Amino acid sequence: MILVTGATGFLGSELALQLVKQGKQIRCTKRAKSIIPEILTPFNTQIEWVDADLMDVFALEDALDNVTQIYNCAAWVSLKQADKLPMINTNVTGAANLVNLCMEKNIRLVHVSSVAAIGMAKPGDLITENHHLDQATETDGYALSKLESEMEVWRGIAEEGLDAVIVNPSIIIGASAGTNGSGQLFETVRKGLKFYTAGSSGFVDVEDVAKCMIALMDTNITGERYVISAENIGYKEITAEIATGFGIKPPAIYAKPWMMGLAWRAAALISAITRKDPFLDKVSAQAASMTRNYDNAKIKKAIGIEFKPISVSIKEICGRLNRP
Fold it and tell me: Among residues 109, 125, 212, which one has the least CA distance to residue 169?
């Protein structure tokens, strides 16, 4: 039996979809109040849904009955400062619980981390799997939660020979995101974004991330981590391409780093007054002006993946969002 955690999320639902389209019978975990994604509702005969939170060891153990493979896509993602410590505790404890059960039951694991858990390269160099985040200086709660969750997987590998692979996707985009997560970038541009920044990052289609995970699961590779990223693109270029996809003018005003600093401070003040989520947080504001480009050579060599061009993904996403 194959288990997918976090199957109600953006990546988890795409992964589950690809598995059932391959004819697999799978089990998916969800929280009691979670809604099953529309893309998975036609496959109820192939998917067994179980209510199991990674923090609940007993429910999780029951969900692992007869399971031989686990794709761990579950994680709490939040940019709120108030969520930082509970998010770290939840993500790390959940990963530890899953790792312990995988070791006990001899289950193979593909664990989803993030490039947020990978450190920076020297200027001009690409970031690889060999770069490591400096835990002592990092302040981003999400990055720390992903790094420490990875460390639980590495603990299992080192102590008990856990059969596991870690994937570190860059910014995941896809039509099924809607206006949530990375979809917020598309929605912001569509609403008339006027500013662009000088930063850059890696981008990858959600379909390709799922393909990489399934391909890695089906290999004998263990004890490795893989950057999953299709292309490195500047924020100016990608926002311009998104604007073209919507048939509107691209952002034309350069937002310098000091301007972004003022913006996130203003957002924090407005958030404190309105008690609504800030439209921009410090981490995102700083990242928008940073160059973070990734090397995907290792995953290409491992499974021979040919990534979907990001330009194709952008057209698909804009087309979906343009539908009435």
Answer: 212
- Helix extents (H) in 23-120: 57-63, 84-105
Range of the domain at 17: 2-180+201-231+293-308
Beta-carbon neighbour count of residue 221 at 10 Å? 15
Residue 60 lies in a domain: yes
For residue 121, being part of any structural domain is answered with: yes
Encode pLDDT of 53-107 as tens digits. Answer: 888 889 889 999 999 999 999 887 776 667 788 888 888 999 999 999 999 999 9
Number of domains in the chain: 1
CATH number assigned to the domain comprising residue 129: 3.40.50.720
Residue 181 and residue 202: Cα distance in Å, rounded?
15
Can you list the alpha helix ranges (DSSP code H) found in the chain?
10-21, 57-63, 84-105, 141-160, 183-190, 206-217, 235-246, 257-274, 282-287, 297-303, 310-322
Give the Cα separation of 304 and 215 in Å (integer): 10
**Pick from 117, 79, 101, 120: nearest CA to 160:** 101
Residue 17 CB contacts under 8 Å (≥ 6 apart), including other chains = 39, 40, 43, 210
Residues 6+ apart with CB under 8 A from 315: 245
pTM of the model: 0.91
